[in-house]
Amino acid sequence: MSWIFLFFAGLFEIGWAIGLKYTDGFSKPLPTVLTVASMVVSLGLLGLALKTLPVGTAYAVWTGIGTVGMAALGIWLLGEPASVVRLACIGLIVCGIVGLKLVA
Questions:
Q1: Residues 11/51, Cβ–Cβ less than 8 Å
Q2: Rounded to two decimals, what is the model's pTM?
Q3: According to the model, what pLDDT value does residue 24 have?
Q4: Which stretches of 1-104 are DSSP H helices?
Q5: 10-residue stretch averages of pLDDT, the chain, 104 residues long
Q6: Is residue 94 within 8 Å of residue 71, measured between CB atoms?
Q7: Does residue 15 contact residue 69 with C-beta atoms inside 8 Å?
Q8: Domains of the chain: which residue ranges?
Q9: Within 10 A of 84 (CB to CB), how many other CB atoms are there?
Q10: Which of 42, 63, 70, 102 is 20 to 30 A (C-alpha) from 17?
């Protein structure tokens, strides 16, 4: 169950990270509320996952999910470049997440 909590914590991390872009410096109320709510949910789920997972593993996976998700959304939503090197680096992060799951 902890891995499920951690997975969704990572998804909510993506939500608040992309939400920061749309808050316009916290000047737009709805995106700001949604971003803060995503932060609370993400940290709450991470806390639940930490009940049984090692902190180093959980934190690395949580930030890895957020990093991969934000990089993908940056490419898809924000028109950031999708170079071969960038995609390869994202792939390495995914390999690290899978590796941590396999050994934890």
A1: no
A2: 0.88
A3: 94
A4: 2-23, 29-49, 55-78, 84-103
A5: 97 95 94 97 98 95 95 92 95 94 87
A6: no
A7: no
A8: 2-103
A9: 7
A10: 102
